[in-house]
What we know:
5-stranded antiparallel beta sheet, 2 domains, Beta-lactamase, globular
Amino acid sequence: MPITNTTDLSALLQQMLAQSQPLYSTGKVADYIPALAQVAPQQAAVAVATLDGRLHSAGAAQQSFSLQSISKIFGLVMAMNRLGDELWQRVNMEPSGQPFNSIVQLEWEQGIPRNPMINAGAIVVADVLVSHYSASKSAFLTFLRRLAGEEALYADQQVYLSELEHGNRNAAMAYLMKSFGNIEADVPQVLEHYFHQCAAAISCEQLARSLLFLANRGVQPSTNEQICSRRDAHRINAILSTSGMYDQSGEFAFKVGLPAKSGVGGAIVAIVPQFGVITAWSPPLNNYGNSVVAMQLIQQLADELGLSLF
Ligand code: DON
């Protein structure tokens, strides 16, 4: 185990948080979803949950933020559990090398998204959920609550409505995929599900706990429940390593070396197999849509503790 001393880890998190604050000004809060533009930029948090049940954190680690693209992990687990290997005929597992909301590849590649971590891929996953659950939005929240062990998790209505109103680019992708036969349900219903899962509100501490099963071969350590198969946990970590940070995934693997996922709400989650989960949050983003402070916090922690898988 790379971490042995609880006090040292908490002190390290505090120290890293203080050092990373000058980076606030180098990023910009997402404003293409107007509700996200209202979030105060100068906030940050970091949390580490370990398989043995410990939780360390610093900063605003109990404050909720918008889950955004990190919801793609939870949706993917649900769709893999429902559809099995058939899912991989509808979405690929290759890095896209394009921004998360790029549309160009979709036409070249006949409506099959490059991977489930870009918006187009997550919209296909949303279609699977809408088609396989009678109430997919509440099924998603129930799954999230079960994993986080928190009944109170909710979807932020203001963010949800803001995305619905400003989601033309996602709608364009969904209709293009529908024209290729890769969306089964009605597009508005699929988009509603997708925006609703993106609008889930969660804190760093809750998020770190909720994804521990990915560091533990599919088993949630607090309940011993098999959330996904060992093979699927491996596959999801592989996809996060190659595509979780969008077109900055190569740089993230180079500098950090952990499966990870970002969201435009400013959070990043990194999986440390056989050890635990790191989450960091701070709203200002770089040009790729990844939080500058959260990137720095995770990179520094992985470095200090020697967590890289490579
Ligand atoms: O669909 C969107 O654009 C947002 N709801 C989610 C995008 C996102 O979080 C990309 N992350 N870096």
